[in-house]
Amino acid sequence: MLFSEYTPCQDKVRGRKFDRNMLKYRERHCPAKEELLRCLIPAPPQYKTPFKWPQSRDYAWYSNIPHRELSIEKAIQNWIQLEGNRFRFPGGGTMFPRGADAYIDDIGRLIPLTDGTIRTAIDTGCGVASFGAYLLNRNILTMSFAPRDTHEAQVQFALERGVPAMIGIMGSQRLPYPARAFDLAHCSRCLIPWKKYDGLYLAEVDRILRPGGYWVLSGPPIHWKKFWRGWERTREDLKQEQDAIEDVAKSLCWKKVIEKNDLSVWQKPINHVECFRSKKVLKAPHMCESDDPDTAWYRNLEACVIPLPEVSSSDDVAGGAIEKWPERAYAVPPRIRSGSTPGVTAERFVEDNKLWKERVAHYKRIISPLPTGRYRNIMDMNAYLGGFAAAMLNYPVWVMNVVPINSNHDTLGVIYERGLIGTYQDWCEAFSTYPRTYDLIHASGLFTLYQNRCDITYILLEMDRILRPEGTVIFRDTVELLVKIQSITDGMRWKSQIMDHESGPFNPEKILVAVKTYWTGEATQKQL
Fold this sequence. Notes:
This protein is an alpha/beta fold. The chain has a domain at 327-516: Rossmann fold (3-Layer(aba) Sandwich). 26% of the residues lie in helices and 20% in strands. The chain contains 17 helices and 19 strands. It has a seven-stranded mixed sheet with strand order 6-5-4-7-8-10-9, sandwiched between helices. A seven-stranded mixed sheet has the order 15-14-13-16-17-19-18. Helix 13 links the parallel strand 14 and strand 15. The longest helix is centred in the C-terminal third of the chain and has 21 residues, at 346-366.
């Protein structure tokens, strides 16, 4: 069972070889070719099908994630409790002893959380993602992330609950998201040293925040005058930290909206007109030189402000205004409207949506449990414009939209403008997640893209790693590729069937539906 929680690119042993400075050792470090495992990762003994959503928000089986550490270490903070053979998530957190719901209500009194203005959020250092779990009630979709080894398995718990999360860290590199992606960024005692490295980490939050987006900070050093005794730090130290954060926020041209109790809220400007005027007066960080702000795969951080797209008037939203949720999902995104996504027109966008509505209706016919809550965590490995995820909005699911870094179009910014979430990824490497964290994986045209880039067996083994036992995969590709895929997955204990395209047997593209069979590590050992 040594490998049952194996995360190839966040391996603790390999990580130790790397620099501890800026937590580089906790970033992605993938195995070299000769280190790649050519085997299946076993589920733990007594693995059970997770609870269905919405029950999964509050419960998970102990046998699926046999870790007691958090229930002991975080007992007072009410993160997680062990009750017999299952965990319960009371919704507590370090900064929300009254529960995440009450904490979110406190934030909702300061900024608009329920009118559709805020739809995409990022939670830096998320614990078991109770913040993201309870924001879902308010139609806000949160990308939660935390490193692999601070609190054992916190991201695994989040995904087991049916809440979006990834393994990730604020280290020396950009987060794998495009510029202007999130309406809200949140840090609750997230231990990120915001004042260090000339404000490098706040500059990265600025890059990924939408114009007019909010940054919410709770916990030390906020309101230190009242709380400092409980934090076991000196008043001078806390004052210095808060002053430094305020200075960095000012240099990013952010406006302090409010500070109330242990919450502080800043807002990014809707454009940089005023910022450019005052830039001469302000100190670091300076404006970045010409650079693609969306480039985020293994790209080092820089302590500079990325200039927002130019506007004709100081009242205009840089890059274009977006509709409120839910209209936002199908409105033509500004990146397409402005022509800044090469090869994608408004007409193409509308056609793509229509196409995926028809395809998802077809999937529903061939995969009966789609609307029942049986599937919760879904991944689209080659998401393009997010049409598949948008067509799934009526189901009790969420979709991780992946834009491969090798694809012809960088469309992840468009996906976020639609109010959906996702990440960049190179599928010749492992994804930043734990084993058994997705119920359904969708791979349309992915193998056409990767067949000559790397051995597709390793991509299929990675899909097996992240798929839950009895999970489903839908492949769409040419029949030759699907036959090749099927010959490999037959040896991986998957059951599969090639089916005609929804338009009929004459379409050269076919569909392969595969199901991973149930087996655990213990059962395998008995077989041997």
